[in-house]
Specification:
The chain has 374 residues and is of the alpha+beta class. It has a single domain, classed as tRNA-splicing ligase RtcB. It is built from 9 helices and 17 strands. The strands form 4 sheets. A 7-stranded antiparallel β-sheet has the order 10-5-7-6-17-15-14. Helix 2 crosses helix 6, helix 4 runs antiparallel to helix 5 and helix 5 runs antiparallel to helix 6. The radius of gyration is 20 Å and the shape is globular.
Length: 374
């Protein structure tokens, strides 16, 4: 039986994406699929897909960066404190000194909950002792970022996008080796009630906690930079965060289901969410509308319109500079940022219009300073 498939799309998805979605819909145990307006092609399962199953876990429907997500906090300051080139340069320089892209030079202590929890395999325990302790509080590359923004009242905000770093990938890959191939779709799965399924869930929960701790550390370091460089404090009560790569037991229409979100956020009634645009355009703070057909979900961002290779080939530097006008960034690294150019992503305004049934906009934020690893 093919799963029910509902779509909230802002543009045609293309033949390859449609084929991937149909393949997912044929997967054994799949009950319902919701396709977000930022959906785009990815290995095995498209980003921007929400899959509900009855008794199976599909690790590819969560993705490798388990727990990847967003965090935000406001400052007790106007965004105008970053209007000047000297102030922006000092903040960028301090961020480079404070927040590594890949790993710290020395191991970082893990909180007791992360250090003491037992992972399911010795190989994962060893990785935690190596990469896990060296990568906590690091940003990562690709579409991960740290951005200072101004809201419509000109208040300064921080937005952070990062996840479980190499730990999530290691956990996914380890459990894929123990998975079974679904005959209809060719996707690998774990029975949730098997020893292997229970082990995945435990490791997955650890990765969610690690990702959350990673973002909290990134926020702490960025807040310290603003305090030291610009003498402005953060308002701790405004902090909030959300995951957009996870699987969770939920009940929908009275039925207990395993809801996988890969590049989608939970959007239950009034649930707070963060939906970023791209480097040069607006982002949004949202509240969920609890749309049942969408499995109480919404998009996690704008979604790619071009692959990284295509963006580097098609977007001229002059176009990138025009799209980034008014946003501070490290011009020395701009050639390495072409694959993250605003033009490589969908129109975030169109994405938000396409999901008006799923979430409502609470706050619009425009970028002031963008910090990305290259």
């Amino acid at each position: 039986m093919t799963a029910t498939l509902h779509r909230w799309t802002s543009t045609p998805l293309g033949v390859d994406v449609d084929a991937s979605l149909q393949r997912l819909a044929s997967a054994g145990g799949a009950a319902h699929i919701a396709v977000m307006p930022d959906a785009h092609l990815a290995h095995d399962v498209c980003v921007g897909t929400v899959l509900a199953t009855r008794d199976r876990i599909y690790p590819a429907a969560v993705g490798g960066d388990i727990g990847c997500g967003m965090a935000a906090i406001a400052f007790n300051a106007d965004a105008s404190i970053l209007d000047g080139e000297i102030a922006a340069a000092r903040v960028l320089s301090a961020l480079y000194s404070t927040i590594p892209c890949l790993k710290h030079r020395a191991a970082r202590p893990l909180a007791a909950a992360l250090a003491d929890a037992q992972l399911s395999a010795p190989t994962l325990e060893r990785r935690r002792a190596r990469e896990g302790r060296f990568q906590l509080g690091t940003l990562g590359r690709g579409n991960h970022f740290l951005e200072f923004q101004r809201d419509d009242e000109e208040r300064l905000w921080l937005m952070v996008h990062s996840g479980s770093r190499s730990m999530g990938v290691a956990i996914r890959d380890h459990h894929l080796h123990a998975a079974t191939t679904d005959r209809a779709s060719g996707l690998l799965f774990l029975d949730v009630d098997s020893d292997e399924g229970r082990a995945y869930i435990c490791d997955h929960e650890w990765a969610l906690a690690y990702a959350q701790a990673n973002r909290a550390e990134l926020v702490r370091r960025a807040v310290t930079v603003i305090a030291d460089v610009l003498d402005a404090s953060a308002d701790a009560e405004t902090f909030f965060a959300c995951h957009h790569n996870h699987v969770r037991r939920e009940t929908h229409a009275g039925e207990p289901l395993l809801v996988h979100r890969k590049g989608a956020i939970s959007a239950r009634q009034d649930e707070a969410g963060i939906i970023p645009g791209s480097m040069g355009v607006a982002s949004y703070h949202t509240s969920g509308r609890g749309c049942a057909a969408a499995l109480n979900s919404s998009s996690h961002g704008a979604g790619r319109a071009m692959s990284r290779t295509e963006a580097r080939r098609r977007i001229p530097m002059r176009t990138f500079r025009r799209q980034m006008q008014g946003v501070w960034y490290d011009h020395r690294r701009e050639r390495h940022l072409l694959d993250e150019a605003p033009g490589a992503y969908r129109d975030i305004a169109a994405v938000m219009r396409a999901q008006r049934e799923l979430t409502r906009i609470d706050r619009r934020l425009r970028p002031v300073l963008s910090f990305k690893g290259t």
